[in-house]
Structure formats: C-alpha cells, structure tokens
UniProtKB/TrEMBL annotation:
Record bears the keyword Amino-acid biosynthesis: no
Species of provenance: Desulfofervidus auxilii
Keyword Manganese among record annotations: no
Region described as Disordered: spans on this chain: 1-20
Function per UniProt: Required for flagellar hook formation. May act as a scaffolding protein.
Protein keywords: Bacterial flagellum biogenesis
InterPro entries cross-referenced by the UniProt entry: FlgD, FlgD/Vpr_Ig-like, FLgD_Tudor
FlgD Tudor-like domain location: 83-214
Name assigned to this protein: Basal-body rod modification protein FlgD
Lineage: Bacteria, Pseudomonadati, Thermodesulfobacteriota, Candidatus Desulfofervidia, Candidatus Desulfofervidales
Domain of life assignment: Bacteria
Gene3D superfamilies assigned to the protein according to its UniProt record, in alphabetical order: 2.30.30.910, 2.60.40.4070
Similarity section: Belongs to the FlgD family.
Occurrences of domain FlgD/Vpr Ig-like (ranges): 100-174
GO annotation, biological process: bacterial-type flagellum organization
Amino acid sequence: MQVNSIYTPQRTSEDKIKNPNTLDENDFYQILITQLQNQDPLDPLKPDEYVAQLTQFAQLEAVNDVKHMFENLMLYQTSINNLLALNLLGKEVKAEGDIIHLEKDKDATIHYQLLDDAQKVSIHIYNEDGKLVRTIEVGAQSEGEQSIIWDGRDDKGHHLPSGDYTFSVTAIKDGLSVGVNTYMVGPVTKVEFDNNKLYLTIGESKHLVNLEDIIEIKQ
C-alpha cells in the first residue's frame, strides 16, 4: 500500500524581513501544523475549525491565497491520517458497526452497549442475504457495555458457514425500547484506500471500516 509522504509547507527564497510583532503566512502554517501533530487521533481538528482559523488569518497582511493554503493543510492532514492508519495495524480497536465474522466451527463474540437497564434483550443475527438465521434470547441485562458468545449455529442447531454476518439488538424496559449501540472489536489487519478515503479491516471480516468510526484503540 502506498502512503502519501508527509507534506510540509516550505519557506520561499523571497522571505522578507518582518516586524517581530506580526505574523506572516509561514508563521501561521507552523502554528496549524503544530496543532495537527498534537491532535487527538480519535478527535482530529474538524474542517469548520480549519475555516475559523483560516478566516482569522485572512485578516493578516501576509495572506495571498487562503484557498491554496487550505488545500495544502488538507494534504498535510491526509498524510497524518495515513500514518495513523498504518500505526493501527495489529492493534485491537473498537469501532461503530454491526458486523460479526464467523469462522467455521468456531464461536464469535457480539459486542454492544445498553443505554439503560433492560428487562429483556434479544440478539438477531442475519446472513449476507439479510435472512434472519439466529435469535438469541439473553434475558435481563444492566446498562453499559455487554458481550455474548454466539456458537455459530442457526436456530435449528446447524453450524453456519464462514463469513460476515450482521446483528441487531432489541432491548425492552417497561414495554419501551432501550437504546443500543453496536460495535466491532478486533485487531486491524489491513489498511486500504477507496475513493480517496481511508478504510480499515478488522479481523478476518471483509467489511471496510471508516477510520472515523474507530472509537477506541486498545493498548
């Protein structure tokens, strides 16, 4: 996989002596680059935050082409994301999603979070064609993160083939639905690009996970 080299804005040979109490374009580049290098990888600087800071810079005398500067900074952000994705290879992550991968004759773990206590929890598992193949009645569970083991069998007790399956969780309390978040958990096994966006593969699943859907990196 080819990763773009890190883009670093360069000073030109036409740099002029400036008033030490003023900021020019190169100063502003360095400020934003420092912010990018020290940002939280799970909560990177948002485009609207770029725009807000670029708008401030637009008021400085040294600005010549804000649009060009914005494009350069986005290239730099892409390079940072590329390196971040590579560093995730082999690490266990938790991502938003409803995919579970099943290996033949093996168990699979289903991860989810209940947003309130529930008196009844049911797990529904579907094959790649969207057909319901298994329902697991869990019973009562407390608010918080939960996981259950699926034995890889359908409702008739037959072992299902290897592949990706989707799941949904139904939780009920006092006759009302309880909110549920579903997750994919496993090691990052591949990093790839599609339409200029970064995606990760978790475990043996063929499902591509958007880098933005990663919510936890386990050490």
